[in-house]
Specification:
alpha+beta
Length: 286
Amino acid sequence: MTTRDPSEQPDITVFRGWKDAGKHVWSPYVIKLEARLRFAGVRYATDCGSPKSAPKGKIPYVQCRGSPSDSEEEQAPQSTTTTTTTTTLGDSTLIIKAFTDWGVLPDLNAALSPSLRSHDVALRALLEDKLYFYHTWERWIRNYYTMRDHILASLPYPARVIVGMLIHRNVSAMLHGQGTARFAAEEIAAFRREIWDVLSALLVESRSRSGLTVGGGEGSDSEPFWVLGGEQPTEADACLFGFIVSVLICTASPDSQKVVRGFPILLDYAGRIHDRYFPDYEKWTE
């Protein structure tokens, strides 16, 4: 599918949970969504927002002024004028799907073979349906106070304590029901490292296939390479970039950060994408 003419694209605001203009935020899903928009050169604004205002009750969500459709099931349309509609969309995956259906974003996986498409889906599932819960456990259980004080920084201290306790209780129950919290800390750490080890090996192969040298450099050697080894990114690249950067900037995940920094290929992969598509954003410390 071809993308719409830029003059016809809706005005998009991405609500990221924090203001922090010019910086990545801790949520891998926010980074994933922003990367997906920037891969296509789609302009957007950012704002803080609140889960209470989000269609799915979570960050990120977007508002699109002048959207081409207000009939999707997951939309919350609000009439702003007689000719303009503001549509609210929630969940990073559903937002990307809606934008692709509207022609705002290209279908990155359209040209993939069935085999590569299944690999792309599997990589995203590994990150979003497995690694995410290990990271959530590390942040909200192992490093609770750091996570609480960052997430709830806008709340005065007494309210922060109470709301933090409620979030901790809900997250603990969720992780126990999901299964992650039933494992010992050492077992979770081993599961987490195994995932990063596998992803690192895949990226080494992909970089080798691209012909780029280690660490980037002048000219084409500074260009990004992609996780499936192709010439263009796929959906898995936006997702993987989001998870790597989230770990690198989150002070509530020190163990994961140490693991990720132990794989130079992860830093090279994320660094190339950041330098190409996020030159206006503050970069993590190497």
